[in-house]
Hints:
The protein is α+β, with helices and mostly antiparallel strands and 181 residues long. The protein has one domain (9-174): Muramoyl-pentapeptide Carboxypeptidase, domain 2 (2-Layer Sandwich). Helix content is 46%, strand content 16%. It is built from five helices and four strands. It has helices spanning 11-33, 37-63, 71-87, 130-142, 174-177; strands spanning 92-95, 102-107, 145-153, 162-171. Strands 1-2-4-3 form a four-stranded antiparallel β-sheet. Helix 2 crosses helix 4. The model is unreliable at 1-8 (pLDDT under 50).
Amino acid sequence: MSRPAHGRPGYHKISKDLFVLTYGALVAQLCKDYEKDEDVNKYLDEMGYGIGTRLVEDFLARSCVRRCHSYSEIANIIAQVAFKMYLGITPNVTCNNLSRNEFSLILDKNPLVEFVEELPAGRPSLCYCNLLCGIIRGALEMVHLAADVTFLQDRLKGDSVTEIGIKFLKKLDEKKYRQKK
């Protein structure tokens, strides 16, 4: 009996590298298509949002995580389970306020920039990995949480770390998202 393709050793490494290279080509094309960095950033966020709304179902099925009871638990699940599962890294989580609704994910390594040395020339406001913010925001919305997700620091822009900020805004009305039977 043969093993399925996903069971081969190295499969995740190959698919991650392919994704990173393809992502780089996507950002390069968007930079050609849009003059303003803000337009590229918005497009990447919207694309990520669409991915996140679909990816959350796979995440919940594969991870077997239980219902979280605090924003802190959610931030830790995002870092320790989701990032590990899909990108092979585990960001550090820090809480940024006393209300415990703002968190930072500090990425020691960012797989999306593995083959990128610097931002494209003339693109100082480009948020190269804005796709990640959209993915997180879309996934959180699908589990009924509104959040503002932004890059706070980026090594590609000369910062000492890469930091994604997550500010939980409110719990959304679950009735709005229930399917009618």
